[in-house]
Design brief:
With 175 residues, the protein is mostly helical. Helix content is 39%, strand content 2%. The protein folds into two domains: 29 residues; 106 residues, Orthogonal Bundle (Cytochrome Bc1 Complex, Chain D, domain 2).
């Protein structure tokens, strides 16, 4: 009986250790997760391409946290919360970027007041360009700027809803 209990205990400990190793190697974090869980699963399978296939099959899940104002852009996020993320300590985007709508005048990174030209050069729709610039800043580096200056971990430091909110805010601020 003792042998069975010891074998069960060793198996459980080994399973927990293996799970922790997989989580660490995958770089998964729980930052940004709410105490209620990870929220609703997205039901839309919409793509950002043009044409009939890009019509969403459902409405996007509501944004979590922040203020309750809506976005004036086509982005699914909450533009008011996006401004809070942009100017706050979580994102801190304004310390490096100029954006009139946020009242920021950073000069380390590109001026974000007119991104449509860069989005065209990158061959992406504006909202997709803004999102990829946040989560993968090396994918397109504007002329005059150096790759590697903008942190590459905003995709893991910020929640998915905060990124959507940032996209909505920056997109809505475009001329």
């Amino acid at each position: 009986m003792i042998k069975v209990l010891v074998a069960g205990l060793v198996g459980t400990v080994a399973g927990v250790v293996a799970m922790i190793v997989v989580i660490v190697l995958a770089g998964t974090t729980t930052s940004g997760a709410s105490p209620e869980g990870l929220g609703p699963l997205p039901l839309s399978t919409a793509s950002l391409s043009s044409g009939p296939a890009s019509t969403p099959t459902s409405t996007p899940p509501p944004s979590s946290g922040g203020s309750t104002g809506g976005s004036t852009s086509g982005a699914a996020g909450n533009a008011d919360n996006g401004k809070t993320v942009f100017t706050g300590s979580t994102g801190g985007c304004g310390s490096c970027h100029t954006l009139a709508a946020a009242g920021t005048s950073g000069t380390v990174g590109p001026d974000l007041d007119n991104l449509s030209g860069d989005a065209q050069k990158a061959g992406e729709p504006l909202d997709a360009f803004i999102k990829s610039s946040i989560v993968d800043p090396g994918a397109y580096v504007p002329t005059g700027y150096t790759d590697g200056v903008m942190p590459t971990d905003f995709g893991t430091k910020l929640s998915a809803s905060d990124i959507d909110d940032l996209v909505a805010f920056i997109s809505a601020s475009q001329k």
